[in-house]
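go over whats below:
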Amino acid sequence: MKRTIGAALLAAALLLGGCQAGRPDKSLYQRGLEVVALMEEMAGSPTYLSLFSSNEEVLAVLAEAAQGDFSQPRAVYRITLGQAAMYPEVEGLSGALRENLEARFAAAVFTQVNAMGGAEQLAAASICTAGKVFASDELEENAIYLYTYENAVPAAVSFSRGEDGTVSATGVLVLYDGFPAGDTPEVEQFLAELGVEVEEVGP
């Protein structure tokens, strides 16, 4: 009898532990920081970079970015796509196709920003693009988290919803020199011209 009770308690404990382990234990904000840390490691790894480019100008852009201090964000913004950022015909699309288009737009916003800096910045950013997939019920609509720093280039992580409660995160370093360095009004004004909606959420 004691062995039966003990086995039942052990099974219940394992089941409970498994349920707890399966729950999302990190916020989108924290997941974004993990992606930023991965991009920081990419930019600072000569071995990694050598696998993708030998262009000295491109590597110089990343070498400078790698010198930044990404340990603590100065400010963090949550960005969602306004209607102005989408094609006018978007309302005529099916729900599934619209979701796919919105996810692609979210991932492309800061690719467009980097393109403003020229081919070297765009190529450098593409080399250090990072991503991950995880479970989360926090994301209600596709969004971008923009992390800005006192002494480092900004980093943007786009989050898009998948099936069965999954979220796909894709990060890119913002290497365009003309991007505002810090104050919220300047950042919001710059992004407003892209047709997106911005709110400050941290640090």
